[in-house]
């Protein structure tokens, strides 16, 4: 399976960055035309959309709160942990992409310092699900970046060969990603453009991770069985973290993530110890 992935998921260079950069340019142009390049106007221009989406999405609080947890890498990545054994190439790209996304996310949040909805609007005027976030770190949405960083790697990893299936596959992955990312508006943590921009940044991060992995072999050690103890320790730590999350918030998504991780821990341990 890993050999198949290596041979098939090779994006065609820098040209794949044209679309996300074009979309970011369109957003910038829209904000410019709306005279919304300042923080206050950025918030004002999407205020109505924020309240509309928040009111509609928050009608399903349990669904919103469970799905939004997938923007946490410690919840999302355990679902992919089994690929360490069967398709380590995926994890090489995910690790590179995650470093790029973390760097971009932190830099952009510090650059824009946009206050979150709870720091601007009356908290009684919209629905907040879960913890109230009121810092100045709204743009871009870090959860959206994480989701699209991971989904972009998966999209190219399992890309079909036929064009019609490629279209269906890519459209499905992007729609699912947006469906999960928009929950950040549903829980009252972000404005719509935070999510859209974050999703585009995540896509760029995912592409960057793939290209970095192709050019540099910094994560090549993941392919070798003798390094499995690193993952055994990492998985064990993540299991403890997930159990702690369950004790604090009894969410279904945490149980599913935990089960995935336990299965992966058992499989990788068994593979490592057997002769």
Describe this structure in words.
- It is a single chain.
- By secondary structure, this protein is mostly helical.
- The protein has one domain (2-224).
- Helix content is 70%, strand content 0%.
- The protein contains 15 helices and no strands.
- Helix 8 (88-112) crosses helix 13 (192-215).
- The longest helix has 25 residues, at 88-112.
- The radius of gyration is 20 Å and the shape is globular.
- It starts with a helix and ends with a helix.
- The mean pLDDT is 93.
What fraction of residues sit in β-strands? under 5%
Element pattern in H and E: HHHHHHHHHHHHHHH
Give a count of the beta strands, DSSP E runs of length 2 or more: 0
Largest sheet, strands/sense/barrel: none
- Overall average pLDDT: 93
Summed up, the domain count is 1
Distance, first to last CA: 21 Å
- Radius of gyration (Å): 20 Å
Instruction: State the secondary-structure class.
Output: mainly alpha
Apparent shape:
globular
List low-pLDDT spans: none
List the total number of helices.
Answer: 15
Helix content class:
55-70%
């Amino acid at each position: 399976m890993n050999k198949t992935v290596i041979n098939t998921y090779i994006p065609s260079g820098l040209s794949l960055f044209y679309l996300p950069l074009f979309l970011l340019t369109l957003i910038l142009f829209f904000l410019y035309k709306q005279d919304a390049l300042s923080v206050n106007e950025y918030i004002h221009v999407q205020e109505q959309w924020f309240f509309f989406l928040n009111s509609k999405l928050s009608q399903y609080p349990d669904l919103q709160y469970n799905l939004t947890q997938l923007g946490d890498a410690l919840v999302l990545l355990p679902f992919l942990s089994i690929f360490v054994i069967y398709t380590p190439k995926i994890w090489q790209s995910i690790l590179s992409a995650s470093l790029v996304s973390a760097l971009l996310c932190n830099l952009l949040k510090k650059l824009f310092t946009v206050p979150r909805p709870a720091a601007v609007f009356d908290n009684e005027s919209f629905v907040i699900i879960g913890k109230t976030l009121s810092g100045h770190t709204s743009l871009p949405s870090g959860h959206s970046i994480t989701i699209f960083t991971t989904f972009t790697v998966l999209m190219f990893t399992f890309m079909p060969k036929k064009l019609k299936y490629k279209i269906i596959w890519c459209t499905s992955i992007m729609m699912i990603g947006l469906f999960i990312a928009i929950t950040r508006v549903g829980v009252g943590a972000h404005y719509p453009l935070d999510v859209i921009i974050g999703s585009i940044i995540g896509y760029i991060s995912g592409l960057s991770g793939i290209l970095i992995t192709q050019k540099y072999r910094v994560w090549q050690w993941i392919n070798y069985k003798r390094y499995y103890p690193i993952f055994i320790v990492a998985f064990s730590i993540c299991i403890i973290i997930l159990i702690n999350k369950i004790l604090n918030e009894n969410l279904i998504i945490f149980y599913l993530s935990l089960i995935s991780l336990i299965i992966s821990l058992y499989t990788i341990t068994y593979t490592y110890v057997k002769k």
